[in-house]
Amino acid sequence: MSETPTRMTYREACRQAIRDALHADPRTFVMGEDVGLYGGCYAVTKGLIDEFGPERIRDTPLAESAFVGAGIGAAMAGMRPIVEIMTCNFSLLALDQIMNNAATIPHMSGGQFAVPLVIRMATGAGRQLAAQHSHSLEGWYAHIPGIKVLAPGTIEDARFMLKAALADPNPVLIFEHIVLYNAEGDLDPGVSEVDIARAKIRRPGRDVSLITYGNSLPKALDAAAELAGQGIEAEVVDLRVLRPLDDATIFESVKRTRRCIIIDEVWRSGSISAEIAARLADEFFFELDAPVRRICSREVPIPYAAHLEEASLPRMADIVAEAKALVRPK
Amino acid sequence: MSSQKVHLDHRHGLTLLREMERIRRFEAKCVELYQAQKIRGFLHLYDGEEAVAIGVMQALDERDAVVATYRDHGHALARGVPMGPLMAEMYGKVEGCSRGRGGSMHFFDASRRFYGGNAIVGGGLPLSLGIAMADKALREGAVTACFFGEGAAGEGEFHESMNLAQIWKLPVLFVCENNLYAMGVPLEVSEAETDVFRKAEGYRMPGERVDGMDPIQVEAAALRAVASIRAGNGPYFLECRTYRFRAHSMFDAQLYRTREEIALWKERDPIARLRSWLLQSHMITEGEIADIEASIAAEIDEAVAFAEAGTWEDVADLERFVLMDEVRQ
Amino acid sequence: MSDFAMPSLGADMESGTVVEWLVKPGAQVHKGDVIAVVETHKGAIEVEIFDEGVIEELLVAEGEEVPVGAVLARLTKAGEAGTPEVRAVEEVHPEPEPEPEREPEPSPEPFRPAPSERAKVSPAARRRAAERGIDADRLRGTGIDGSVTLADVEAASPGAASEEPRPRATKVKRGFDPVQMRKGIAAAMSRSKREIPHYYLTTTIDMSVAQVWLREYNAARDPDERLLPAVLTLRAAALALKEVPQLNGFWQEDAFAPSEAIHIGWAISLRGGGLIAPAIRDVDKLSIADLMRALKDVVARARSGGLRSSEMTDATFTITSLGERSAESVGGIIYPPQVGILGLGSIVERPWVIDGAVVPRPLATASLAADHRASDGHVGGQFLSTFARLMQEPPKP
After folding, report:
1. Domain A6-187 annotated CATH 3.20.20.80
2. Cβ–Cβ below 8 Å for A27 and B137
3. Which residue is closest to A251 within chain C, CA to CA?
4. Is B70 exposed, middle or buried (0-12, 13-18, 19+ CB in 10 A)?
């Protein structure tokens, strides 16, 4: 069974989650590129092929459409696969299988076939991998009815969201941010499971709600700490689940603070932050004391040069500046 | 069913003939209903190709799985999905096999391991891999028959799936229904290698070509293939050369082929040929043929009545099954 | 007889043209026969008939374009066939659920809207201002882009303490908060008593002439034009203030600042135990009918929470009238920075002396409380007696 040290990296948390899953259910297996012999592009599955064998830690050829579709078919026929797409950048090759099969067959078959499939993908930018390797597509996927989309932003969520995802009869996409893999933190030994339904308030505050997920979460927490030093109490809300969005927690926070900044590492136009802003305008208009603001990536293919990449992504300083503008305009 | 020989006796001859006629008449009724606007959207008919679905289905049993394309009426009927729910499905009624959600292109039947009805060309091949993977672990000896047209050989998914099936020795029977045209594009315009079964060689997969207008030849080939797969030899590829007598779909002026060509292929009509062969061999009588036709006509009438009497799904249930509460299959 | 209609041959086919008839009237047709060639936007398609019988009539000529469903030919059927006749019918799909009625969308905002004249007020601030009876548009905004925020509204509300956030409400709440109001009144009255040296004068007024006049005036009019007694009180006070301007204005910075305009605050008690005295402006300039309208309007808005902030701050003098079945006199407390408040007690029937005889008369006690820094008893007495006289001299018709 899994060891329970209290301190581990996000990467290690993902790995332990997979180990737990494979031990718990013989129908579960991992399938993807370089998950076995290579040990995983981000070393998440390192060593697992020795523990579980090549049938359950299954290397695939470079054929996203085929192996994602195979995961769907296997789930329809009685297995509980964990498909790993190396990064969300490659998932576009499997988009047809995800959208037209996984998300669609349950409804289109009149409820005859569920698709209890988990797809894990690395996502995000910040390692100078240039445009084709730096996408954040979790908000895009959150557009599709018929799937669930998770964005673990903490070690605890990386550790325990997989279990909940495997127990869900629906296709669940889990997006692991590449910058978070190295993050290290303590696990609360009293926690052995998490939900995949609710957002969480990571830091309470009264003056402004910072709503975010993934790798923007630590930036928001840092911004909140800095703002506190200037007398502004920012509340940080970790969305955790992008589809379905937890409106109740978002509204509860904004009701308290009446000001909202959404931080989202995607291109602004048509992003999940736009969806949240629209919901606030729609159902929460009269509670707002200031316009809803968004901090997103610049609308550019993410460039390689360090200073350009940094300027393209949401920055802590931007969050601090926006919060001050809302709470204490001149 | 471990025999690899087709035992063509009176009973089996009648079975083959009846099954093909059922499809042919069903499709004719669909034309009528479509023109009367009872069936809407897209309608892809199987006239001329009946021998492929019927022939292959003789080699399968209940433990096996079937994946088909949007031209799925013949496969669904051959698999034993009852006519009433198929008709009701095309009417859009909730009594349809997919609650009216799918229509002609998306027949599903979990109880008969009929996994659709897929409208994206090539989209069903990866699914069949996964079903076969699960069967390898959970259902000994089960085979997944994956039907697709030769047009799918252009898609990347085809090649990915062939490769993956072979390296993982998945129990998939790939049945390529080569009717020479992908919508309006003939094979020689779109494929470098027009002998589709030779693509299997590129993946070291056993494969053969068979006359798809002859149900007995198809059956024999399918028996061979299924025996090999059940023995654990991995996937098998069958290219069935066939021809669709009707257009690609209802709304097709067939500018891409000549009447003469259609007429030529109609001379090889699998139903007409089998019928005359069985009569000439005194394996069946005209009376039995008449009985078949009458019983099929009655079955179709009943199916239409079932569809006509059906009800519309409550719009309040529109979002039902977007997300599932449980794994029902 | 049965009809052969233009068939639907595709999801997006709406019409077709018969380019060639392959049968003539009198021709025998069988199920599955191709009887016409139809041209569509996708090309020419052969069309089959599903009936058995004899063509009687071709209704559409070659070259004619007709919509899907139009009758092309008629035929007499050859007995009943085994299959049920399926005729083209109108759509039998159920009525779609009617869309809930939506307001027509306003034209979309330009991408960068030009700065507008309208003040920027946050939605939460606007709602709170409405609850408090404050005009948010007139407040100074300290929020982003100069917008008026909740905090700004809180600061402008008289005596309001900082609030606990309300329970989640999606409707705008109307009316007032009695607890806050009580606090406001307490603060204002305490301050008044602390700072203003009040002096008090009273006089008794025979209201019989006013009562008769009012009765006659109202008898001749529809209900919506009838006057309340308050109108006469307001009129008399305004005209009295014109003659005694030392009571109409503000005590500010150790001096009396008279007001040209006469805006009289009319004390209104609210259900739930609050008291508010919004100003009716330019009372001296209003006709009796207009005065009645203004009074009705301000009372209604006071009760529904729709007063403007200017109405709360503009009064130059205040009247508090106890109405009926209340005390006989009221010694008011001045609303700073005003310098006077007139109180009118309930009308009671008492003995009065006219021409040496004792007669019963409807009497009301008027009391003036005034700021001794701004005026003294002589001035106050002048005002009161002028008021009393005017109450007994109702307006000429």
Report:
1. no
2. yes
3. C168
4. buried
